[in-house]
Every structure is written in C-alpha cells, then in structure tokens.
Amino acid sequence: MSTGWIVLGVIVVLALFAFNAYNRLVALSQRVGQAFADIDVQLKQRHDLIPNLVETVKGYASHERGTLDDVIKARNSAMSAQGPAQVSAAENQLSGALGRLIALSEAYPDLKANANFQQLASELSDLENKIAASRRFFNNAVQEYNTGIQQLPAALFAGMFGFTRKDFFDLGASRTEVEAAPQVKF
C-alpha cells in the first residue's frame, strides 16, 4: 500500500514539473511572438515612409534611377518577407539601399536643405533607432526562450510539447554590407 502512494507521489511531482515547464515555455514563446510583432510594427512604419522619401529624392536626383529602383525593390521584398530569418535578410538589404539613398543627399545640397527631405530623413533615423531597440528586445526574448527549452526540467518536456529553438533577428552574413559606409559617386 505505501509503495502505491510513493509511486502516485512521484507521478504527481512529475506532472507538476511538466505543467510548470509547459506554462513557462508558453509564456516565453508568447514573449518572443510579441517582440517580433513590435519589430513588425516598426518595419511597417519604415515601409510606409520610404515612398515619400523616394519621391522627394526623385525631384532632385532623377538621374539616380538605379538607386531609387533598388530602394523600391528592397522595400517590396521586405514587405513580402515572412518569419524572422526572411524578414531579417530582406530588411538588411533595405537598410543598405536606404543608406545609399541617404548618401545621395550629400551630393545634392538643394536636396539636403529641403525641409521635407530633412523631416523624412529625421523620421527614418528615429525609426531605425526604434527598430534597433526592438531587435535587441526580440533577441533577448529569443535567448531566454532558447535557454528555457534547454534547462532542466523543461528540457525533458520541451520536445514532447513541440517547443523548438527560435532564430535570432541577426544581420548574419550581410553584416559587412550593412556596416559599410555608402559610397557616393559623382
């Protein structure tokens, strides 16, 4: 009779560990989803700002068609990307194209002095800072989640409950391209 109670007690303790681990992993997974949604909101705002910026630059630098087309193509690609890995890659291409577009203002003093361009560039700079902060928050949430599924006792149950590693929002292989200073050719 006492052996039955011991077995039942062990089963109850294991069930409590499983429930606790599951609930903790669900909370961490929700945090990752919310953090990615925050990034998505900032990126949508940037996508909405880009056509106005391109139109402003067009009036001053219409012969820079290649740069303007690159920005529009990169924006369209970024808007259709799905999931952290694709979004990250597409947004990195867009950041590079935007860097080249902003660099055009150095070659066109009238554009640089244009109030509309200054306002749009300021908004873009502000959005870039917000996106960077959102990326840091997302990557922190992913790190906590990935650590959570690898720690005991959750590691015993994570795979069984369908919890798998999540990808960071990283610059990856294009880091050197994004960090490189844009070149202005006259």
UniProtKB/TrEMBL annotation:
Pfam families: LemA. Signal peptide: none annotated. It is a single-pass membrane protein. The keyword Ligase does not apply. Keywords: Membrane, Transmembrane, Transmembrane helix. GO terms for cellular component: membrane. It is found in: Membrane. Belongs to the LemA family. This is LemA protein. It comes from Bradyrhizobium shewense.
